[in-house]
Amino acid sequence: MERSSAVAVVVVAFLIGLLTSEIAAEIAQNSTEFYRIGRRRSPPQSLCAQLIEPSGYSCSELTIQTKDGYLLGLQRVSSRSGDLRTQQGPPVLLQHGLFMAGDAWFLNSPEESLGFVLADEGFDVWVGSVRGTRWSHGHVSLSEEDKEFWDWSWQELALFDLSEMIRYIYSTRSSKVFVVGHSQGTIMSLAALTQPDIAELVEAAALFCPISYLEHITSKFALRMVNMHVDQMILAMGIHQLNFRSEWGVNLLDSICDGHVDCNDLLTSITGKNCCFNNSRVDLYLDYEPHPTSAKNLHHLFQMIRKGTFSQYDYGLLKNLRLYGQLKPPAFDLSLIPESLPLLMACGGNDDLADMTDFHHTLKELQSTPELLYLENYGHIDFIVSVKSKEDLHDPVIRFFRSWGKSSSS
User: Where is the Partial AB-hydrolase lipase domain (predicted)?
Assistant: First the structure.
């Protein structure tokens, strides 16, 4: 029994390396601090006070409720010279990726962080954090200790969390919303935009590392975890929340590099090589990342890799029949995204998670022809924390939004 338990811990430890790819894996190249993410202090429960207002920007904290009862944090940011009470710029919603939250858009200097850059350019910046992250606020009746609290995947994040954020901003501003998504945020965006009632509220969307299909990812580490069915093992062990700041998460993180994995190569093996990571800000990144997610969410992502589909969560034949009325989960039909909805898609030549073969699959299913931005040297994380992001990424996004913003008050 002891041997079986030890094997299980080692397997789960391998998984954690995959899960932390959004930020923590990058840090593995630079510092042994990577192994002690969970031992760092947790930020106070106010994103505005902790990260945005100290840089001189106006910021307000809001809470919205989803249809299934989750209480989401939503921040509204204006420029250093602006006033939230008279904010008239076009609204833009920033949607983070896996194991991140709204802080991801403010982790670099004001000149290098998209949240600050958009505010300084006159946009009305709204920052979303999905359920389970530290900037959201629980549930109307469930505790985070309840396994039911974690019974969701990116499907619910798209159809409930992101959709509710868009509705709230639209109703507040009486204006269509620009959307920016990164990584999992693009999965959520594409799924949400297949819903006509949401698509009609969106002016345009900019998607960084766009993902709807994952069949051809080239990340060796991720593929190894998928083939080992580690996601299913985690669920079988009764683990529902994946939180690397918990005692459980800290122990697993420590075990990754305890003779099992060469952490110096972890970033490259998971995400591909990132060109422009700011090593000087490692300590700040570790103060904020990673955020929790659900084991079910990871399982859904691994289903996408195994099956090559962009579909709702697969519960198995019998439960699928009961919930969906069919044996297989329904696919999200990308052709339902309106041809008239402008899209910008930014891809990196070194991104092993958002593969170009899968990206071209996505393009074939869309009715529209998105504007494409290809950054040959960029890896998966560069799209959030590159020190060259303003000229490489932010300026093209701003030009794109302004070219389509004339009808934003309609």
Answer: 49-108
